[in-house]
Amino acid sequence: MERVSLLQCESYGTGLKSQLEKLLAPLGGLGSFFRPGDRVLLKPNLIGPRSVESAATTHPALILAMAELVKDCGGRVGVGDSPGIGSAESVIKRLGMEAALKRLGAAIVEFNTPVALAGFGRELPFERRYKNLFMARELDDFDQLINLAKLKSHGQMGVTLATKNLFGCVVGTNKGRWHFNAGKDLDGFARLLLEIALTARPGLHIVDGIIGMDGNGPSNGRPRQLNILAAGGNPLALDRVIVELLQKRPEQFPLFAAARALGLPGLELAEIAIAGAGPETLRVEDFQIPAFHRTHIFVNETFSRIASGLLKQRMLLDEKACVNCRKCEELCPARAISYAGRIRIDDSQCIQCCCCQEMCPVGALRVSEPFTVKLLRKLKIM
């Protein structure tokens, strides 16, 4: 039986450290995940140099509280990630926690050195498909990894929670390549995420949903007070419980379909022991996810092909908001974006990876929602 701990928490204020201790108590406490003297790497969501108020990153107060707790338990702490834009250090500076980490003796770790997943020497319960996928060698400098994810909507995968956050273990310049390789195959990209998660293998996952994000996530959505802290040892079980809190059906999300096809545990609520706050006290109303489409919900293959055209999403540019920084052009793995006095998007080349929307510094890009998708959502078919 998988275990997930839930806690209702309304603030990132001075009591956060004790709230985290309360969250982790049903799982054996933080000290049960590593030994004194171990090097412990905290892997937050540092998507880019965004403001604290944007809710795009794991909240700095939570990162610092976890760093203090690791130190209290005798661990030597580091904080690292591979942001989509900039460096871990630049994001940490933007979040205003560089001095506090220095006082704690916490190292800032840049994920710079790519190593093939197979090079980590960790067997998977299924055959690897992505043998040429590279993760950061810096992960191997630590004895334990703790995943500090952010609860957000996501343009491509619907939501980004514990499992998706570990895509940040891939060295920055390689992320775009794998988005391109996966193309429009969301199930293939979901399997890629699972191979990363099972290779990185954190001992503990915590999801920061005190203030989460919905709508045009994962960078430019709407910050929402959700009051959720969640933790567990299995990222899929943790994600499954959170999706239930969001009142979404698991079949809406490619990650769960890929995990089910591989026979991975943690997908059935009946097999998950939930401790702490009752799920009914943390349910979220009307959590908005971007207009990505899942044509495989239609069991008939022929109809699925027809539906693919009817449900086709597009990237839409708000030309008034666009500042012509051309970051989207630079980061597009499919080279579907060009600039000729203004940004142009070639729909025929777009692979719908949502990298441009995710990394736009001013939120000028969003995923369109065709009338057919709006209708199916209203009918609760999607």
List keywords for this structure.
single chain, 382 residues, alpha/beta, Rossmann fold, Alpha-Beta Plaits, two-stranded antiparallel ribbon, 13 helices, globular
Report mean pLDDT, rounded to a whole number: 91
What is the CA-based Rg, rounded?
A: 20 Å
The biggest sheet, with number of strands, parallel, antiparallel or mixed sense and barrel status, is: 9 strands, mixed
Q: What share of the residues lie within helices? A: 25-40%
What would CATH call the class of the largest domain? Alpha Beta
Structural class: alpha/beta
Tell me the fraction of residues in β-strands, as a range: 15-25%
Examine the secondary-structure arrangement and name the CATH architecture of the largest domain.
Answer: 3-Layer(aba) Sandwich
Q: Return the CATH topology of the largest domain.
A: Rossmann fold
Distance between the termini: 30 Å
Number of domains: 2
Give the SSE order as H and E letters.
EHEHEHHEEEEEHHHEEHHEHEHEEHEH
| Unreliable stretches | 295-301
Count the helices. How many? 13
